[in-house]
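Fold these two proteins, one after the other.
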Amino acid sequence: MPVVKIELIKGKSKEFKMIFMDTVHESMVETLKIPANDKNIRLMDYDADCFDTKPPYQYFIEIIMFSGRTKETKSKLFRSLVDKLHDKLNIDPHSVFIVINEQPTENWGIRGGISASDVQLDFTIAL
């Protein structure tokens, strides 16, 4: 049930942006073992004057997800993301900044306002 926000400078094609989002999702399915239909991704592109970042960063990926994954799983996710983005879109891995924001399940209201801590999830968090 991760929620992803991707941010970049305007100017990329719709195809580029769709591949970017699909690639991020693919990495999460593979490394976090979430269901393939569990896709919650937003992509925001900004005018260059509204995107002032420290070089070499050009792409920001924020993943908000349930707490509980191991450091090793998160490291695999980071590596998978940059490798796949490089392979599919020729993005320099050093230009990608990734942050994970972990929240306990009781902080999530899902499925009509039910706390995620009270819902039987269809995937395992502790990986």
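Now the second one:
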Amino acid sequence: MQNTNMSRRSFLGLAGAAGAVVAGLGLAGCSSGDDADEAGSAASIDKITMVWLPNESAAEFDAGREEFGRVLSEYAGVEVELMTTTDYNVAIEAIASGEAQMANLGAEGYIQAQQKNENVHSLFTTADTNGTLDNAKYYSRIAVPADELADYEDAESPTGYSIANIKGKRMSFVSQTSTSGFKVPCNAIMEAFPEDVTSTDDLAQPGFFSEVLFGNSHPGSCVNLLQGDADVAAFDDIDVDMYLKVPEGERDEVNQPGNVYGVADGAEQPFDRVQGAEFGIIQSTPVLNGPIVYNAEVLPEDVKNKILEGMTSEDVANNEQLFAPEGAEDTGCIWSKEDTSGFIAVEDEWYDPIRELA
């Protein structure tokens, strides 16, 4: 891994304040020999490294990440080091290899990490606003410039729009490990063009599309579209809407095809260079909220249990430095009470629908 792909910051929990702070990565204080062969049963752990995807690694979320690290450290009783990244693959490799004990991933990233190491498991995710998993979702969008929206109108489509005209266009995805920025839109394209596309590999390189770009984050993919480098782009709602003028209405309504979004006045980087630009949605698909995951080889079971109990508590759900109150702006929070009531435990099989995508 290159240093340009990640940065680190550490927090020391109250319960671990008297313990030694370890400079290196991984476990310290673990027994050797036969005892060390038992995955997740280390006698002690001095530090938890928590890795973040590029979207949540952005500077505007510094305060939210730091509060997460502080709270996680408090419940785990040990130091927490936060690792930010600019590449999805860095985050996936960190948790799969055991360099990190925990990670914030999308559903597809989680599945890929688990394929690399079966000891990677889901721990908790963000609940819906009712505190359940029933509507714990966000949206994957396929979008085009607003002034070209009419080219994708389709009277025979239930939504009034279709992706029938995207073949041969310049396409921007987020990353090949992104759920909503690659896997879900690719699945939709494969279903719409079964004779032209047989796998996601066909869409990751020029062929079906005249050019394929990767924004490496959802804002990056959206900006590729808005600055004219791509004709079509895939990205989600939760990682870009804070930069945009969002149409009025319920979340399900404003994510419907035909809706137009513009860049908000004074939007921060990278949207500062596309002020006044607009896009329209031509396809929108609900996606399961991504999990916070752990690697059982390097996170002891008792520590994992303390983390799960603490992070899914009402105290955490009511922490306004983690979950921004409804209507609040520029809080630095990663999550908002407009979308979720807090964290909820999630089992591995909940992500089977993502595994079953083409």
